[in-house]
TrEMBL record, chain A:
<keyword id="KW-0378">Hydrolase</keyword>
<feature type="active site">
    <location>
        <position position="204"/>
    </location>
</feature>
<feature type="active site" description="Nucleophile">
    <location>
        <position position="87"/>
    </location>
</feature>
<dbReference type="InterPro" id="IPR029062">
    <property type="entry name" value="Class_I_gatase-like"/>
</dbReference>
<dbReference type="Pfam" id="PF13507">
    <property type="entry name" value="GATase_5"/>
</dbReference>
<dbReference type="GO" id="GO:0005524">
    <property type="term" value="F:ATP binding"/>
</dbReference>
<keyword id="KW-0436">Ligase</keyword>
<keyword id="KW-0315">Glutamine amidotransferase</keyword>
<comment type="pathway">
    <text>Purine metabolism; IMP biosynthesis via de novo pathway; 5-amino-1-(5-phospho-D-ribosyl)imidazole from N(2)-formyl-N(1)-(5-phospho-D-ribosyl)glycinamide: step 1/2.</text>
</comment>
UniProtKB/TrEMBL annotation, chain B:
<keyword id="KW-0436">Ligase</keyword>
<keyword id="KW-0963">Cytoplasm</keyword>
<dbReference type="GO" id="GO:0005524">
    <property type="term" value="F:ATP binding"/>
</dbReference>
<comment type="similarity">
    <text>Belongs to the PurS family.</text>
</comment>
<keyword id="KW-0067">ATP-binding</keyword>
<dbReference type="GO" id="GO:0005737">
    <property type="term" value="C:cytoplasm"/>
</dbReference>
<comment type="function">
    <text>Part of the phosphoribosylformylglycinamidine synthase complex involved in the purines biosynthetic pathway. Catalyzes the ATP-dependent conversion of formylglycinamide ribonucleotide (FGAR) and glutamine to yield formylglycinamidine ribonucleotide (FGAM) and glutamate. The FGAM synthase complex is composed of three subunits. PurQ produces an ammonia molecule by converting glutamine to glutamate. PurL transfers the ammonia molecule to FGAR to form FGAM in an ATP-dependent manner.</text>
</comment>
<dbReference type="Pfam" id="PF02700">
    <property type="entry name" value="PurS"/>
</dbReference>
<keyword id="KW-0658">Purine biosynthesis</keyword>
């Protein structure tokens, strides 16, 4: 598994991401700058880390979504290559057209920073193989604009085609109500692209890979990718 | 040539910021405010002389970057 992490001005989770990837794959990912035009030969996985690319000016992820490197990322995804976007990375994937929908301001207008339970919706993807379908995991969330919105037709398609990757839930795995931290439609925390080779999610699995940090529920995602 | 681009949320898209402002106006006692939607204004200076060319350039700017056409409408004033 050869991974590349794209760093934008304002990214701030690239170090955590690189550490999680190295722990799972045994090799350091390439760190690429947003102004680069090509991915290193043989790249299997491209990761867009969390942070505040370009200060979140205009809209979250809007400017990064049009950065030079994103043409290479789009081509990589079109070839079936794996792409992971976490938090601001998810916003960038939506703004760049790699995933449908948009991340709006949290419905309660508050920045939320806390531990959050998620339900893993399916385990037959390169990102979730090391989890069980329906499993509840606990990871961290930290975002002001994680309220996933899309038009009714898009939501229907995501649900119908099994493209919802993770949903916000409580410790017992129940979705809805107070378990939803930001007002996302259908409690959506993460979605796959049509071919399930692109995953965007608001929570930060890369921060839960070490017991010292409070848990290791994030490891499954990186171990799945390492085996992909 | 000076131009103004106004980007607003489409009808039906939840606008949490507009709702918060609406609530604040109501608590300030401003009468008659039925609802508030928040948008963005871009004042653009163009080096183009032709109005049609300017409109075309600004439309491209909106579709490529200024507006997220999934949730936003744009309006160009020349």
């Amino acid at each position: 598994m050869k991974a590349a992490v794209i760093v934008f001005p304002g990214s701030n989770r690239e170090g955590d991401m690189a550490r999680a990837l190295q722990q799972a794959t045994g090799r350091k990912p390439d760190m690429l700058w947003h102004g680069d035009h090509e991915l290193p030969a043989g790249t299997d996985l491209v990761v867009l880390p969390g942070g505040f690319s370009y200060g979140d000016y205009l809209r979250c992820g809007a400017v990064a979504g049009r950065a030079a490197i994103m043409d290479a990322v789009r081509a990589h995804a079109a070839r079936g290559g794996l792409v992971l976007g976490v938090c601001n990375g998810f916003q960038i994937l939506c703004e760049s057209g790699l995933l449908p929908g948009v991340l709006m301001r949290n419905a309660n207008l508050r920045f939320v920073c806390k531990m959050q339970h998620l339900r893993v919706e399916r385990s037959d993807t390169p990102f979730t193989r090391h989890y069980a379908a329906g499993q509840t995991i606990e990871v961290a969330i930290a975002h002001g604009e994680g309220n996933y919105e899309a038009d009714d037709a898009t939501i229907e398609r995501l649900e119908g085609e099994g493209l919802v990757a993770f949903r916000y839930c409580d410790a017992q795995g129940r979705v809805g109500g107070a378990a939803n931290p930001n007002g996302s439609r259908n409690d959506i925390a993460g979605i796959f692209s049509d071919r399930r080779n692109v995953l965007g999610l608001m929570p930060h699995p890369e921060n839960l890979i070490d017991p010292l940090a409070g848990g290791i529920d994030g490891r499954g995602l990186f171990e799945s990718l390492a085996a992909a | 040539m000076k131009a103004r681009v106004i980007v607003t949320l489409k009808n039906g898209v939840l606008d949490p910021q507009g709702k918060a402002i609406e609530g604040a106006l109501s608590s300030l006692g401003v009468p008659g405010v039925a609802s508030v939607r928040q948008g963005k204004v871009f004042d653009v200076e163009l080096s183009l002389a032709d109005k049609e060319a300017a409109r075309e350039a600004l439309t491209a700017a909106c579709e490529k970057l200024l507006a997220n056409t999934v949730i936003e409408n744009f309006h160009i004033e020349l």
